[in-house]
UniProtKB/TrEMBL annotation:
It comes from Planococcus lenghuensis. One of its GO terms (molecular function) is nitrite reductase (NO-forming) activity. Gene3D superfamilies: Cupredoxins - blue copper proteins. This is Copper-containing nitrite reductase. Its EC number is 1.7.2.1. Residues 1-20 form the signal peptide. Its cofactor is Cu(2+); Cu(+). It comes from the Bacteria. The keyword Chaperone does not apply. Keywords: Copper, Metal-binding, Oxidoreductase, Repeat, Signal. Residues 97-194, 240-347 form the Plastocyanin-like domain. The lineage of its organism: Bacteria, Bacillati, Bacillota, Bacilli, Bacillales. It is an enzyme of class 1 (oxidoreductase). It catalyses: nitric oxide + Fe(III)-[cytochrome c] + H2O = Fe(II)-[cytochrome c] + nitrite + 2 H(+).
Amino acid sequence: MKRGLAVGATLLFVSGILTACGEEAAVQEPAPEIEAGEVTEVAAAASSTAETKVFGPHEGVNQPVVPVKMERVGEHEVNIEMTAQITDIEIAPDLMYRAWTFNGEAPGPLLIVNEGDMINFKLINIDPAIPHSIDLHAVHAAPSVKFADIMPNEEGVFSYPANDPGVFMYHCGTDPVLAHIANGMHGTIIVKPADGYPTDSEIDREFVMIQNEWYDYNNLEDFANGEPSQVVFSTKALNEGDRNTNGDTFSLKDEPLTANVGEKIRIYINNMGPNEVSSFHVVGTVLDDIYIDGNPENHMTGMQTILLPASGGAVVEFTVTEAGDYPIVTHQFNHASKGAVAVLRVAAE
Ligand SMILES: [Cu+2]
């Protein structure tokens, strides 16, 4: 709404300037001598909606979600196939963002492999306009070779060993990386530890949560020097039937995550940035066990808030001892006030 008003105000302002006298009739609609293109261009600078400002080559491009393909083809080998594509995402009520995505989701689909797996990765770039790529933080690989750009309407195949357990970010690494991440090309890959976590047997319920920021639509200047317009959470399906949401201000408030009193909850959390850290905090409990970056070796206990750098992940575990609503936030409340609040609704058994 606020942005809609801003665009309207800009249009009125521009109309006034261009017609020089600000007659009432001219304010109602652009004067005939104004080229429509001029107005569109100026108005676009203040807008973030897909309807009013779209990267030229992506005008009219809104590609349907393509399910990710993950197939185990051997005891220690998995094939993953993803698309790079352009898809509209609702990031706040009635605010659409023409996101650059993996598979039409932002954050992209959750990837899950086992420690020791060889990942055979195929990236199909169906964006008709620009190259994209995949940078997996979970692997050792030469970026210039294995994270290489895939041109529009082409595909690339790369193999990577996943030998480190944890909760890792993946993202598009194509220049300018900031634009590709801020426009939505990021996600989480979980590499499950071969020997599990020492607290596995205590866990009753688990979720995935991801934090990311949104800025003015495809505005590299705002990505680089501005403040995020929205800071958001999403959840992704860890098991079949779990929810998949995009990074938005409302989904995890309108429809809370749910648990029962007395349960020990595990959350796989990952911060996409692109720019901000997360001070991840669950109101009404203490984080009993924390595995920084999701590695079982990085076990910490009894923490109130964990710091996730841009790209950083963790596994956090806590108990809910009373029924009620438990907000989950980044304790940087300027960011929480921009959307980064989820609710865990705990029912009496
Ligand atoms: Cu990209």
